[in-house]
Amino acid sequence: MNVLFWNVDTQYDFMRDDSSFHGALAIADAHQIEGDLEFLTELAAKHGIKVVNTKDYHTLQSREISHDPDFKTTFPPHCLRGTLGARYIPATEPENPYTIDWKEVDFDLTKVQRHRNIVLCKDEFDIFHPSGAPHTPKVLEVLLPDRVMVYGVATNVCVDYAVCGLLNFRRGVEVYVLRDAIKELPHLPLDATLDAWRDAGVQLITTKEVLKYAS
Prior knowledge:
Number of helices: 7
Largest sheet: 7 strands, parallel
Distance between the termini: 6 Å
Number of domains: 1
Order of helices and strands: EHHEEHEHEHEHEH
CATH class: Alpha Beta
Strand order of the largest sheet: 3-4-2-1-5-6-7
CATH topology: Rossmann fold
CATH architecture: 3-Layer(aba) Sandwich
Helix content: 25-40%
Number of strands: 7
Strand content: 15-25%
Shape: globular
């Protein structure tokens, strides 16, 4: 069983809103899942599990960036290139990753095979979007997971896109979502998202159950 962890956008601008850092698009109570995120990061390292880490990586010209956002398809400037807000929080900071920028024309297949951590930078909500994240399908063709464990933020936006994209990637891929290691945007519907996942065969489990399914 080829198991892959999938860490969605656990970056400062989404995860932190405290005295040390005020995230540009901080998700309410996202700090509450940091302990579970750290557990998953350490578990993957201990067992040599590959991790795909997705990363919002925008410019001011990006399609979803707006100074008059509707908070549905457009949002205030966040996760801009070269800013702290675009970096991963310590709980999920990838160790020695191979980073693939959405702007790059191509990437090194051998590095995808060799590195345990892959960072996929994106310029769209959807990590499978052909222009905002063009390399995702090819990376998955190299990794060919049988089972994928998904966690991160935000549940009803980028996590949802990741789950749906993984389900559509290849017949038979098992998708699990770590229910206590995701956090949603409160103004968007959540129950409908979870119900759609269940209907599609997604398994909702907790971080403490991961070891049962990670081998």
